[in-house]
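Notes taken during the Thursday session

The instructor put the following on the board and asked us to keep it in front of us for the whole hour. The protein is Cytochrome c oxidase, cbb3-type, CcoQ subunit. We were told not to look anything up and to reason only from what is written here. First, the residues (65 in total):
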Amino acid sequence: MDMQTIRELQAYGFFFFTVFLVLILYGYCYHLYKSEKTGRRNYEKYSNLALDDDPSSNVLEKKQE
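Then, after some discussion, the predicted structure tokens were revealed:
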């Protein structure tokens, strides 16, 4: 196997891995959108967590057992 073939395989691997990661990202975004649209989760509460991180703050969700 010569160096040119190895570089081509690296390029194809990089391309397909990038496409795979983009599909994972879009799938995750769709999951977030669908969860919020159906009312299972409200992710806006979680976005406020970064601003309101005081130890005396209210708990966002109770732990399900």
